[in-house]
Amino acid sequence: MKIANIDLGERPVLLAPMEDVTDPAFRLMCKRFGADMVYTEFVSADALIRSVSKTEQKLNISDEERPVAIQIYGRDTATMVEAAKIVEQARPDILDLNFGCPVKRVAGKGAGAGMLQNIPLMLEITRSVVDAVKIPVTVKTRLGWDADHKIIVSLAEQLQDCGISALTIHGRTRAQMYTGEADWTLIGEVKKNPRMHIPIIGNGDVTTPQRARECFEQYGVDAIMIGRASFGRPWIFKEVKHYLETGEELPALTPQWCMDVLRQEVEDSVNLLDERRGILHVRRHLAASPVFKGLPNFRDTRIAMLRAETKDELYRTFNDIRQRFFPG
Ligand SMILES: Cc1cc2nc3c(=O)[nH]c(=O)nc-3n(C[C@H](O)[C@H](O)[C@H](O)COP(=O)(O)O)c2cc1C
Q1: Contact criterion met (CB below 8 Å) for 126 and 162
Q2: Which of 14, 32, 252, 282 is the most exposed place for a label (fewest CB within 10 A)?
Q3: Closest CA to 39 of 63, 71, 9
Q4: pLDDT of residue 316
């Protein structure tokens, strides 16, 4: 599958853009486990054109993680165009426009999924950004604003007419936020529309290799994108890719191996930020990791693991977990 002239191979599996999650270290780790393309977290166009240094840092990408997309969000055409040109200087493979973020501080101001309530503006921004940069521009959005306005089938055509190179659809409405189940039927409808010729990337609730295959086979999408299932489980890309390629499950990964990966995540995160912030940053991954699910009498250890403030403290808990639950 190709986006513009970027070849992502057969049945690509992408790492979703996620605020506070898809930093350079995590992207690289997912890439090493097989993610075919990775995305930065969304970057505010407003902050970018004001040269806010924390925002500018989000444009840091490395050749090792390519192909990589940088995603921006905003609600004003001139600002988005200017931000797009700044992003282009950072030399990502793709510039992705976020028209899907449901959170109030973004959508409430008309940006992200808020744009689903102002389609003319969404299309104007898209067209203007496509015209302003030379790199491929893609869009990520949702099914529509709410259950009564699931407009994605016609919206996809309109966005394609603006000149985008691919479209990612998260199978929820803005009103759903992250609740309920992602509905892939409309993603399939978009894909089946004979007018559509750009790649369609399906997203939402892909949490197992079997579901990944089903999404390709039932809905015909060109690629799938995985978000939350990568928390504390960046090796999901290895599991999914193996299954897609061979039709068989990867032999079970040992908990010791998985804990080594999590330890590496801690190291990477601390190196990227600092000890305190790095550990705070990986807590979400430790809390979600399947490695610790279902361990008997784990509650106190889990609390200690999620409260640790230094690497020493955290690794003592890790050692304790290994000795108690995964000896050998
Ligand atoms: C913590 C978090 C942060 C997110 N940040 C972004 C973002 O910056 N840009 C974006 O397009 N989507 C963002 N999303 C949405 C995901 O990219 C994805 O569309 C959504 O989680 C559904 O996929 P999943 O079921 O595989 O997680 C975020 C989701 C989560 C959970």
Answers
A1: yes
A2: 252
A3: 71
A4: 97
Calculate how far, in angstroms, residue 203's C-alpha sits from the geometric centre of ligand 1: 9
Quick one: tokens of 241?
């890719």
Q: Are 196 and 190 in contact (CB under 8 A)?
A: yes
Q: How many Å lie between the centroid of ligand 1 and the Cα of residue 321? A: 30
Catalytic residue of the set 30, 101, 162, 215: 101
Residue pLDDT, tens place only, 142-199: 999 999 999 999 999 999 999 999 999 999 999 999 999 999 999 999 999 999 999 9
> What pLDDT does 328 receive?
73
User: Dihedral (C-alpha) 190, 191, 197, 203: value to the nearest 10 degrees?
Assistant: 90
CA of residue 245 to ligand 1 center, whole Å = 26
Answer yes or no: is the C-beta of 100 below 6 A from any ligand 1 atom: yes
Helix (H, G, I), strand (E, B) or coil at 203: strand
Quick check: CB of 140 below 6 Å from ligand 1?
A: yes
In angstroms, the CA 35 to CA 16 distance is 10
* CA–CA distance, 266 with 256 (Å, rounded to integer): 15
Please give the radius of gyration of the chain, using alpha carbons only, rounded to the nearest integer: 20
What does each C-alpha distance from 215 to 12, 97, 154, 218, 255 come to in angstroms? 12, 23, 21, 5, 28
For position 116, what pLDDT does the model report?
A: 98
Q: Which two tokens stand for residue 236?
A: 């999901």
Nearest Cα residue to 33 out of 262, 220, 216:
262
Whether residue 101 lies in the annotated active site = yes
